[in-house]
Write a structure and sequence with these properties.
The chain has 3 domains: about 60 residues; about 250 residues, Aspartate Aminotransferase, domain 2 (3-Layer(aba) Sandwich), CATH 3.40.640.10; about 110 residues, Aspartate Aminotransferase, domain 1 (Alpha-Beta Complex), CATH 3.90.1150.10. The chain is about 40% helix and about 10% strand. It is built from 15 helices and 11 strands. Strand 8 and strand 9 form a beta hairpin. Helix 6 crosses helix 12. The protein binds pyridoxal-5'-phosphate.
């Protein structure tokens, strides 16, 4: 029967593990980005019997490197250019090791003073880094989906027309709610709207312009139509960096409408918000001082390992009113601290996530982080140049950050044929296993997305990606 390791054994295995991981990172470019497997292949490879006597750490580590890692999609691979990448910098990985070693639960200040206080310190840094006005209270959750849900719950708490917390959904006078977002908002916003009680029928997808940005006049019209029907507008979500194209909704104009109509404004800047640290991108947050809440995900484009999302709210007390519920066994007695992190969200238990943000911001500093973001934005510019200089591609949306939407074109082919060809091209590209791209659909057109945001990406990876894409186009054309 196994006992836990001694500190000495921890050191021996830990040293070996770090060495093996360093080798993994050193050779990551030689690995496939997407593993070559089908559902169930991995399960068929590992021992499914419940371990009764415990196994040796040698066996566990061997299986990790020989079975788990080969069956993993490598988000840290420089060829991972799909979705919005989350990559782990080495300082961030070290912080995770410390977090796991401490295994603190930051629910109360008393349960981890450093975790409680470092959360505030790092979010003050993030506020300064992104040039945000010092009017927000920040709190760390796992994902943007959770952050946006908390924002909409707080918006509902603030409604004066009905007391949701006490009356519950369906009490006398319970209003029908509506939530407004552009047709390009992330699905996490829809989910939050459904869960807080607006229902899918309360979701208003506002039309966007040719640059995929929400049209403020359409928003105003939708709000007026709802009010005329007696529906209560709960919140408007402006997205800074939509998932498909990274388009930026006109925040200031939307904020003016929200102010006039007294509607909660939530800003989803989960991926692209970090670029506000660059003076040349600061304007993406023009009007942010009027927002009620804002989400930014350092795990997306700030090289903090999964997971870490930050919600900023203007009204701290309202967030506390929404989520605070203190049972006897968590009362802090004579403790002078009344402000505990457990009061600001659904989970009671909280990981010490701020440590990895602290490591990353401290290690890279504003200058280091800015340089990497600028490099990624420059890489996207270079990719656009390559695509535009070839005569068989089309850039399908403006490129405000480092995501490029493009498609293969051939004269005489209609959109439905091109959709089929681009779908096939994407399959070819991804089956090459050297890069991994994803797709979206814009105005009925199948579009390939390439994202440059990984910590391990360098300018040569742009050329590699372009060469792989053109090789696969040739294969596509030869195939016909
Ligand atoms: C704009 C935007 N908001 C929210 C999300 C959801 O992020 P999370 O996975 O952290 O919930 C995404 C995911 O890509 C996104 O692109």
């Amino acid at each position: 029967m196994n006992r836990d390791l001694t500190p000495k054994e921890f050191e021996v295995y830990g040293t070996r593990l770090i060495k093996d991981l360093a080798d993994f990172f050193a050779g990551i470019e030689q690995l496939r980005v997407l593993p070559d497997c089908s559902p169930g292949d991995f399960t068929s490879l590992v021992d499914l019997k419940l371990p009764i006597e415990g196994d040796s750490l040698e066996n566990i580590l061997e299986d990790t490197f020989n079975k788990v890692i080969p069956y993993t999609t490598h988000w840290n691979h420089p060829g991972f250019m799909a979705y919005f990448n989350s990559t782990a910098s080495f300082p961030g990985i070290f912080a995770e090791l410390v977090t796991a070693s401490l295994s603190v639960n930051g629910m109360l200040w008393k349960s981890s003073p450093a975790a409680s206080e470092l959360e505030k310190i790092t979010l003050d840094w993030l506020t300064e880094l992104l040039g945000l006005p010092r009017i927000f209270f920040g709190i760390i959750y796992d994902t943007a989906s959770t952050s946006t849900f908390h924002a909409l719950a707080a918006a509902r708490e603030k409604l004066v027309v009905y007391d949701f917390r006490n009356e519950g959904i369906g009490g006398e006078g319970c209003p029908r709610l509506s939530v407004y977002m552009s047709e390009h908002a992330h699905s996490s916003v829809d989910k939050a709207a459904i869960i807080i009680g607006a229902g899918t029928k309360g979701i208003r997808k506002i039309k966007s312009n040719a640059k995929y940005e929400m049209i403020p006049e359409e928003l105003e019209a939708a709000i007026s139509a709802d009010k005329a029907l007696g529906i209560t507008p709960l919140a408007v979500i402006a997205t800074i960096g939509t998932t498909s194209t990274t388009s930026v909704d006109p925040l200031l104009q939307i904020a003016e409408i929200c102010r006039r109509e007294n509607i909660w404004l939530h800003v989803d800047a989960a991926h692209s918000g970090v670029t506000a640290m660059l003076p040349e991108k600061r304007s993406i947050f023009e009007g942010i001082e009027f927002a009620d809440s804002l989400v930014v995900n350092p795990h997306k484009w700030l090289f903090v390992p999964m997971d870490l999302s930050v919600l900023f709210v203007r009204d701290k007390d309202n967030l506390k009113k929404t989520f605070s519920l203190i049972p006897e066994y968590l009362k802090t007695g004579t403790d002078s601290v009344t402000d505990n992190l457990m009061d600001y969200g659904i989970p009671l238990g909280r990981r010490f996530r701020s440590l990895k943000l602290w490591f990353v911001i401290r290690y890279f500093g504003k200058e280091g982080l800015s340089e990497i973001l600028r490099k990624h934005i420059g890489m996207a510019g270079e990719f656009v140049r390559l695509i535009e200089s070839a005569n068989n591609f089309e850039v399908m949306a403006p490129v405000p950050f480092s995501t490029v939407c493009f498609r293969y074109v051939k004269s005489g082919r209609d959109d439905s044929t091109l959709n089929m060809l681009n779908q096939k091209l994407l399959e070819f590209i991804n089956s090459s296993s050297r890069i991994f791209l994803s797709h979206t659909v814009l105005d009925g057109k199948f579009v390939i997305r390439i994202v440059f945001s990984g910590i391990k990406m360098e300018i040569q990876h742009v050329n590699t990606a372009f060469n792989i894409i053109t090789e696969q186009v040739k294969k596509l054309e030869d195939n016909k």
